[in-house]
Each structure stands twice: as C-alpha cells, then as structure tokens.
Design brief:
Number of strands: 34
Number of helices: 3
Largest sheet: 6 strands, antiparallel
Radius of gyration: 22 Å
Number of domains: 1
Helix content: under 10%
Strand content: 35-45%
Distance between the termini: 37 Å
Structural class: mainly beta
C-alpha cells in the first residue's frame, strides 16, 4: 500500500525534447573553480577550532577482491554491495556478499534518457515490508508509436539479497531514473506523459500499486529533481525552481530571480540541503551571451570564466536569497562529505571552488589566463572564511580541489603536482604525516547503447559513470595502499567492512573496531 507522497533523487538530467546542450559544453561550464564574493575579504583570524581526529596509519590489505570494470562506488545495505560495471554489451548491476565477495546475482542496466551527462549510479530502496531492493531501468521494445525515440525502458526492482524480480513496469520514456520515494521507500521515477510534459510515478514494488500525476507531484511542464525536494521546471520557455514536499508545492520561483540572467541547469547544477540551517546552497551554469550554448563552437568570442557560473544560498522554506558568489561552483566538492561541516552541526566550513580570472576562447574552447581556488565559506552569509592558493586552469577539470572522500573536515587543495591537505575548519595545513593515506577518486565513463538521444553529437556514445577510488597521500599522489585511517573516510561501511570500487576491481577491507 502506498502511504505517502513524492520526493526526489539528486541527479543530473538535461531536457530530451529540447535537445539543448552538447556534453562538452555542459561539462565545460559545470566545471568548478574560484573566488569569493566581491568586496568581502577573507577572514584574517580563523575561528577557534579543534584538530581533526588522529588517524591510524597502519596499512590494511583486502579481505577479498573481485576483478570488475566498475564505473562507480557500491551502494551497501543488509550485507550486500551493489555495483555497476561496464561489459562488452553495456552496463550490468552486480550484487556481492559483503562478507566474502561472492557474487549473488547480476542484471543488465539501461542508462535511460538521463544519459549521457547524469552519472549512472546504483540505487537501493526499501519495500513496505522492510526488504532492500535494487531499482533501475532495463531495455524494452519500443511501442509502434515510439515518438521518434528508440530508448524506451521499463522500471524494474529486484530483491537485493536474492536477485528475485519484484516488479517490472511497462515501456516508458523515462526522463529521470528510478529513485527511492521520500529518499527511503518504494520506487519513484519521472517519465514523459501521453500528452505533454513529464509525470512523476510512485510504485509499491511489492504490491505493484501505482500512482502518478498530481497526487504524487502537482508540478506541470517538464520537471526534474535537482536536490532534496527541489525540482527544476521548464514551462513556456521559462525555468523555475520549485520546493515540493509530500505532494505539496511549498514555493516556485524563476531560476533567474535566484541566480541572475542567463542562469540555467542545462549548463550544470549542484545543490546541497541543510535541514539544520533551513538552507539550500546551489550552483548553476550561466550563459552570459546572446546565443544558445549549442552555438558556442560556431562563434568567435571570449567567455569570462567569472561570468560562467554562480553559487547562491537561499532559504529552503521560502526560496529567499541570502547571498550570492559569482564565478563559483559546488560540483568540484561533490565527494567532500558534510557530516563534519556546519551544514550538519559540525565545526568545519563547507567548501566551494571559484574562478579568480581567465577566459575560454571560442570556437577553439581554449582556456587563457585562468586561475581557481578553494574557499571555505560561512553557509549562512556566504562569506569567505579561508582561501587556498590559486592554481592555473587549463581545462574544466582543474578546480583547485583534488577529489577525495571524507566527512568534510579535511580537503586536498592544489593540483596533483603541488597540493596540500587542509583543515576545513581553518584552511591551514593539517598535521597529517607522510604515512597517512586517503581515498582519492577519478571519474569513469561507459559506452552507451546504440541510437541514443545524442547519437549525432561528438562523443554522444559515451556516458558519464561515477567515480572509482585509489589510495593517495596527503599530496593527492597515489599511495601504495590504504590505511585503516583512510577507510574511515568511506561513508558506507557495513558489517565492519568498507567495500570500495578501484580501477579494475572491487575490494572489501576490514575496519579496525576502534575506528568503526
């Protein structure tokens, strides 16, 4: 029995019907980089702070390893690790026993119309009876009237422990992959309606009960989730942000009234929610020109990096803007946890990346004179509390922040050839030793099924995976092995084990009981 209403899943989706932006341009402008609010100086005296807890430097070895071309990190629940991996025929879901690495089951996964730009990651939900279930899309036969699309898919659910099929939906043009309703139970997904716009669906995966339309989500037009209970809505050529909670629209505001002229999630987005502070902090791409992004490579012009992205803090309950930070982005910090930050009651400052200067010269797409830095900021005022040393920007991947897992108390700033481990409370170098190890990450891709929505675009057959890990030193350079201290940075331990996807394999490591 379906008992509550809708929520959302943090993802990235670009409108399929309008076919807006080539992946290269979207990635370019959603890249993160640097500088604080104009006129607001960095704090000269850091606030009082405790040091990060001591980390064990003892080397650990894997309890088990399985060869696998994983495209992202596992989701772990009830003693089972669910991992997506590339195969000669596409992408498959693999379920492994956390205890011994035994493969329990595998199923093919279709990336759906979220591809290629939305990272393809596993999702686990709970059924009404409390069972864990894996939910995703699988390929299906398009109907005779297929609206010109080959990528019709069926939402499916499988028992996480046994691989038994619990639910299989009908063929749909699914625009947002399945996610846990209210971030906890059953299966929700968004698909194109029979007439116009998109419709959110709620499925009880055990009974098969199915609700859709205004009873689940009253939004109209083309909408997609971009944050916790936060949706981007496109209707009549105008994009809005809407906060929807349990089937009720709490507020809906034009995107440009929050982020300024030219703001659009079609050029990338990242939103973080703090229930404690009644706060959303989000960043989106900005198009400061008079022509469409897909025309950028056909024009000769200079794009000021400071005008290409913006971060804004606004009230979750009302949408009221509290502060803005031009030239900044949150995407760079997506692997930095928030458990130890002020967003969740900790004492570390959350971080953003900011462009200091520079431009991208089109049509070549060449970066010129660009620099970026990492900023620790006050989430209520947006004020820069500390700043890292700027680094040169030669591509959208250069942000000044090296991707690594953690809880928000430590960040690695700089580049792989010159970096430092910083205490996010103060922005000062941490006292970590050369024996300390950390969990660094790098992006993955996969080959998409044929005849996708971007098949005629350069790179249109390559989809965004997620992240695989590797052991690294405090400099960000590779380390020989993980330490027990590094394993504490993994946010999803289960049965005193940390299961991690590395390049070419999935491995599990036993945690020290004192650090569990």
């Amino acid at each position: 029995m379906i008992q509550s209403r809708s929520a959302r899943f943090i993802a990235r989706w670009k409108p399929v019907l309008s076919g807006i932006v080539a992946v290269g341009v979207a990635s370019l402008l959603s890249a993160c980089t640097m500088i604080p609010l104009p006129g607001i100086p960095a704090a000269t005296t850091p606030p009082p702070s405790t040091s990060p807890v001591e980390r064990s430097t003892e080397i650990t070895t894997a309890a088990w390893e399985v060869p696998l071309d994983a495209i992202g990190q596992p989701v772990v629940a009830d003693g089972v690790a669910l991992v997506y991996a590339s195969s000669p025929t596409g992408v498959n879901a693999h379920a492994f026993s956390v205890a011994d690495g035994k493969q329990l089951w595998t199923q093919p996964v279709h990336p759906g119309l979220d591809a290629p730009s939305v990272p393809l990651e596993p999702v686990v939900t709970r059924t009404a009876a409390g069972r864990s279930a894996a939910i995703f899309l699988q390929a299906t036969t398009p109907p005779p009237n297929n609206s010109g699309f080959d990528w019709w898919t069926a939402p499916v659910a499988f028992d996480l422990a046994t691989g038994k099929e619990l639910y299989r939906g009908r063929a749909e043009l699914v625009s947002t992959r399945p996610f846990a309703c209210d971030e906890f139970q059953d299966m929700c997904f968004i698909a194109f309606g029979e007439t116009s716009g998109t419709v959110e669906h709620w499925v009880d995966v055990e009974s098969g009960d199915h609700l859709s339309g205004p009873e689940v989500n009253p939004l109209t037009g083309h909408f997609r989730p971009v944050g916790k209970e936060l949706y981007s809505v496109l209707s009549g050529g105008v994009e809005t942000l809407a906060h929807v909670s349990y089937g009720e629209v709490l507020w809906e505001v034009e995107m440009e009234s929050i982020f300024g002229k030219g703001a659009t999630t079609d050029l990338g987005w990242h939103f973080t929610y703090s229930e404690k502070l009644d706060l959303y902090v989000g960043s989106v791409g900005i198009n400061p020109t008079n022509f469409a992004p897909e025309e950028f490579t056909e024009q000769t012009f200079s794009l000021n990096l400071r005008e290409s992205t913006k971060t804004v803090g606004f009230r979750a309950s009302s949408g009221r803007v509290l502060w803005t930070a031009d030239g900044s982005q949150l995407e760079c910090a997506k692997t930095v946890g928030t458990a130890s930050s002020k967003l969740e009651g900790g004492d570390a400052f959350p971080v953003r990346c900011e462009y200091v200067d520079g431009s991208v010269e089109f049509p070549a797409g060449k970066y010129v004179g660009g620099h970026s830095k990492v900023v620790g900021y006050d989430p209520i005022t947006g004020e820069a509390v500390w700043q890292s040393k700027p680094v040169e920007v030669h591509s959208w991947e250069t942000t000044g922040l090296i991707p690594s897992a953690g809880h928000g108390d430590l960040v690695i700033a700089g580049t792989y050839y010159s970096s430092a481990l910083l205490d996010a409370r103060t922005g000062k170098p941490s006292g970590a030793s050369f024996d300390d190890a950390f969990v660094c990450t790098k992006a993955t891709t996969y080959t998409m099924p044929p005849n996708g929505p971007n098949k005629d675009q350069p790179g249109g057959d390559i989809g965004a995976g997620s992240l695989v890990a590797f052991p690294c030193l405090k400099s960000g350079s590779p380390a020989p092995a993980f330490t027990y201290g590094a394993l504490t940075d993994v946010s999803t331990p289960d049965q005193d084990m940390a299961v991690i996807s590395l390049e070419g394999k999935v491995a599990a490591y036993k945690l020290l009981k004192d650090f569990v």
